[in-house]
Fold this sequence. Notes:
Helix content: 40-55%
Low-confidence stretches: 363-380
Number of helices: 19
Amino acid sequence: MKRALKQLDAAIAHAGNYQEWKEASLEHDRLSGAQEWKEIDRAPHYDYELIRNRLAQIRQARERHDVNKLVFHLHEGLHGNLGNISNPALYSHARVGTKNLIGRYLKEVCDALNYLCDNEFDEFPLKEKIDFFQTTGHAFGHTCLMLSGGAALGLFHIGAAKTLWEEGLLPSVISGSSAGSIIASVLGTHDDSELKVKLQPENIYLEAFKAIGWTGLIRGRPVLDGNYLEACLEENILDLTFAEAYEKTGREINITVSPYDRHQHSRLLNWRTSPNVLIRKASLASCAIPGIYPPVTLWAKNIDDEKVPYIPSRKWVDGSIKDDLPVHRLARLYGINHAIVSQTNPHVVPFIARKGGGRLMPTLANLALRNFTMNSRYLLNIAQRRVKSNDLGLVLDKVESVLKQKYIGDINLIPPRKPLSFLQALRNPTVEDVRNFISTGERATWPKVEMIRNTTCISRTFRSCMQRLDRIETEQLRHLRLVGEDKSA
């Protein structure tokens, strides 16, 4: 038995894709006893009795075709973490998945939603149906993918996003700051057929860093060539506005930028708040680390489809200065209440636990870090009040934001700890480096795939049902218009 488990451990470690990893992991669960654990409903980590009762109520109402009771149960009882079923501890016992009861419950809810969506009922007409799905779906909430900064280390995001996309789990709402904005822009400007090609290591252009001179820091000039970075973005990101990209891919890309002026609030650019801004320039601004890259003027298309400066009096810099992970603004814009975070910031990754929910580790080192943070923020406040240089002030703002921001989400995808990995942050990677980064991102994501599949399946079903209902409503309105035109003729 031990020998077989060791062989499976080796197969898991050397799996070439998610399917190979999953097959070896399921066999490991079978031999280790984790499969038996999944078949037993009872566990201290969640309210299994509540889940059993809810499952029975929904199933009974659907099997009896009692639409009113089914709508009542779904409208009153749907919750993303009902009975604590999203507890990360439930996913720490087995290599793949969790309690079968949770899977049965989630499947029944999705089956019930599809049943209501795809059938006609006299007591549940289309208008009421659309109102139900809009109201209940919004109350249930949605999931986003947030991609952190991290310079070249952010190539890890490609592997994480690629895995989610291949498994049909890539959220439609994606945010990116700094390096994360580049990957978010690639995802948002390429449709599915293009992504299959674009996400291959040899198709990603990565000559982004060209030094002007490190003495520029002393003289108040940028260290790296912004034109070089812009040329890199032009190779990877299609020349689209946020609105054009959304129309093409259906993905709602959000890029955080910070004003070059001190004491100003950061902006979240997307097709809703700034539809005509060009994504390339937004990403360039989000990568413009003060003192490292020059500040950037955003560009947009005007009413005549001409490219013009956007708020020409203002320049923009690194989006992670104020808000690396803009979850609160995403919540207001899209009803987001569940976040998958791919985190590669070298000052954050060492302090995140690899097991459980990926929370900051409760170690003595972290207690010391918190004490250091409190004292540092006090000293920074004093320095910020006295400094006159805008560039130095922005650097101090950056340091302050590093100390006070929240860098984790509900599900966290993080690379393994590697000493001195930060030395790679501002180095142009080779194709082999890119391949390794992508592989690392994929392998870090595989163990979280089934948890992501479970925690997002209801919101994905709501989204799919609303798309189908919108098509039905559009078709009915078109039919009514044609009938009206025939009568008037």
